[in-house]
Structures are given as C-alpha cells and as structure tokens.
Amino acid sequence: MKLTIGHLYPDLLDLYSDRGNVMILEKRARWRGIEVEVVRVDAGDATDVRGCDLLMMGGGMDREQSLVARDLQHRRLNVEQAVAEGTVVLAICGGYQLLGEYFETGSGERIPGIGLLDAYTVAGERRMVGNVMAECPLDGPMETIFGYENHSGRTYLREGTDPWMRVVRGGGNNGSDGTEGARKGRVFGTYLHGPLLAKNPRLADWLLGLALERKGTGGGFKSLVDRWEEAAREHLVRRLAELDGMESPHVGTGGTKK
C-alpha cells in the first residue's frame, strides 16, 4: 500500500515549522508498514495534485501568503478536482485563510482564496497569540487538541461550513464565537501551529485513516504505543492549568495504545 502526500508551497508556507505535520504523517504511516511518497508542490510548477491522497499547506507571512494566493488561483480547478475525488486537505493559519473566499487586509484590499471553505477573513486590530486548547470530535468522543496560534485575521464561517473544533482556551477563529478552524467534507482548516499533528497524534492517525479510505482501506491499521506523546500532552495540560489557575483535567489515552 502506498500513500501520497502533497506538500503545498513548503518553502513559502512554513511558519512555526508547519512542515512538521508532513513529517508526522509520513512517520506514523511508515511505522505501520505503509509506503509514503511526499510530493513537493511549488509555485509555478505543473504538479497534478489529483494523484495525492492528502494535501498539506502551512502558514506564512503576508508577503509569502500573497505569492501563494496568486499561484493558487491558477491551481484552483486542479485542487477542486482532487477534493472531488476524495483527497484530504489540511491547511494551517495563512493556508487556512486561502481556502476560504477572501482575506481582507487592514487597508481594505481583498486577497482572493479558492473557496473550498465557505468562510472569509478580515484583519483585526489585535493579534491572538498563545497556546490553544480545543475540543474536536473524531468519529466518537471529543478529543482534546493542543496548538499555538498567532494571527490577527478574524475568520467567520458561512452556512454550510462547520467549525472543526470548539475553543476551551484561546482565541480560535475570531475570539468571539468560540469556534476554531473549519471543515467541509474532507477539507480542514485551522489556526493551530505546534506543529499541530506532533502534539495531537490521534488527530494525525484520524487524518491518515481518511486518506487511506481514498484507496478503499480506511483507518483499520495497527495501533502505536504513544507513551511519550501522551506524557507530553499530560504535561501540557498541567502547565496550561497552572497558568489559568485551574485544576488540571486528565487527557485520556484514547485508542492509540496497544
């Protein structure tokens, strides 16, 4: 079995080492005996992303995001075709904004997105910066998700696009409605760096399972012993609770233990 991961704009969109998400997906697949090919998709190339089972796009600074926005417009139809054929998409921060309708800057300029998510983003006066704790349903009980946000954009979801997570601690999409990220079908966007999937191995496995469904197999692969990952998550919970002056909740081990 072979899994193909397309890494969109790895040199332009790598804020807070978002490329780590690709590394986590690759490692967790290989540890299960699944062959993985990572395909670079750079601005100006002619890569056909319909051959990818999963597409990953990170975040970047304003200049890089503008460059990517122009290239994405030329690649829009190809990405839409890939999504229609079952490709999973994960986009972080600036990449997330570009999956929506547009990003409106503080000066009123609108940078167009590709409309995979029915959402739009406007610049805010205050940046939302810091650790985030959120809750996300992974085909069952709520999973506690950790990440780090640093963005001034406020993202608002239109009818037809669901929030991906609910904020427990942090700003999330806009700091006001308690939502974080967005999902529509197999397209997911979030403001959470971390890298996100390093801090949340069960989320990584869930996305891998969706990508493997495209090949007709699904997520019935073997479990991994995530002892160190879970210890790190427990430490992070305690640390955030201390900062907030709260009693530390327990983060369960879920289904990744043997």
UniProtKB/TrEMBL annotation:
Acetylation in keyword set: no
InterPro entries noted in UniProt: Class_I_gatase-like, CobQ_GATase1, GATase_3, Lipid_II_synth_GatD
SUPFAM superfamilies, A to Z: Class I glutamine amidotransferase-like (SSF52317)
Domain CobB/CobQ-like glutamine amidotransferase, first and last residues per copy: 4-200
Catalytic activity: beta-D-GlcNAc-(1->4)-Mur2Ac(oyl-L-Ala-gamma-D-Glu-L-Lys-D-Ala-D-Ala)-di-trans,octa-cis-undecaprenyl diphosphate + L-glutamine + ATP + H2O = beta-D-GlcNAc-(1->4)-Mur2Ac(oyl-L-Ala-D-isoglutaminyl-L-Lys-D-Ala-D-Ala)-di-trans,octa-cis-undecaprenyl diphosphate + L-glutamate + ADP + phosphate + H(+); L-glutamine + H2O = L-glutamate + NH4(+)
Binding annotation for substrate: R127
CDD domains: GATase1_CobQ
Known EC number: 6.3.5.13, 3.5.1.2
GO molecular function, one term: carbon-nitrogen ligase activity on lipid II
Superkingdom of origin: Bacteria
This protein's record includes keyword Ligase: yes
UniProt keyword terms in alphabetical order: Cell shape, Cell wall biogenesis/degradation, Glutamine amidotransferase, Hydrolase, Ligase, Peptidoglycan synthesis, Transferase
Active site residues of this protein: C93 (nucleophile), H193
GO biological process, one term: peptidoglycan biosynthetic process
The protein's annotated pathway: Cell wall biogenesis; peptidoglycan biosynthesis
Complexes and interactors: Forms a heterodimer with MurT.
Family indicated by similarity: Belongs to the CobB/CobQ family. GatD subfamily.
Chain's role: The lipid II isoglutaminyl synthase complex catalyzes the formation of alpha-D-isoglutamine in the cell wall lipid II stem peptide. The GatD subunit catalyzes the hydrolysis of glutamine to glutamate and ammonia. The resulting ammonia molecule is channeled to the active site of MurT.
Designated name of the protein: Lipid II isoglutaminyl synthase (glutamine-hydrolyzing) subunit GatD
Originating organism: Kyrpidia spormannii
